[in-house]
């Protein structure tokens, strides 16, 4: 690949910034100073150094974000701040995108990557990757809600949802707390499922995807790279109804 792409993907700035870096003589390829951005380099065999430090090439980036409310799950938008706007420039250089979406007023676990294969695997209806949400509900939870959700409920457009697992944390006439695990991602699905039983979601947060749980030490709007063992959790299947 071109050395400017190598450096850009390694976090050394935009293509324009990388060209300036090359012109300065700060980059070496196998011990030789290289200034031409079009110079070809092989990540399997070549060694690239910047200011004497090795620039280890990586193709993909995998990020876990604790998405805050008021930010949209998109790569760009003319009206709202996006999750990409929350990333440092060196991570934006990898051109990651959100895997799926969280509504603007929903917070919690969001995966961002430039690995299209992983994204497709996590979002494919055939994979049935479970997603767990914590929610506050206006009012109490009906006694038969657990069975209704396990059977699938009819949404406002007539669609019957796939089985979902409801866990009631607190049940009160004023406000209840629940966890809900679903294996699909219809538009506003969690909110619409509760509307189907005449209840309203007043707070929603995704806390788990696959077997990967949100790092609770991440403050809202913050993110970090996934560890290898965390990445493997996304591809492991589990039966949420066991």
List keywords for this structure.
single chain; 242 residues; alpha+beta; four-stranded antiparallel β-sheet; disordered C terminus
Question: How would you describe this structure to a colleague?
Answer:
The structure is a single chain. This protein has 242 residues and is α+β, with helices and mostly antiparallel strands. The chain has seven helices and 13 strands. The protein has helices at residues 3-9, 15-23, 89-92, 116-123, 145-151, 189-195, 228-233, and strands at 27-29, 32-33, 48-50, 53-54, 62-67, 97-98, 107-113, 131-138, 165-170, 175-182, 200-209, 212-213, 223-225. The strands form two sheets. Strands 5, 6, 7, 8, 9, 10, 11, 12 and 13 form a nine-stranded mixed beta sheet that branches. Helix 1 (3-9) packs across helix 2.
β-sheet strand percentage: 25-35%
* Element order: H for helix, E for strand: HHEEEEEHEEHEHEEHEEEH
- Strand elements, count: 13
- Separation, N- and C-terminal Cα atoms: 48 Å
| Proportion of residues in helical segments | 10-25%
Please state the overall shape, judged from the principal axes of the Cα atoms: elongated
Major β-sheet, in short? 9 strands, mixed
Residue stretches low in confidence (pLDDT < 50, at least 5 long) are 237-242
Structural class: alpha+beta
Instruction: Return the average pLDDT rounded to an integer.
Output: 91
From the alpha-carbon coordinates, what is the Rg to the nearest angstrom?
22 Å
How many helices? The count is 7
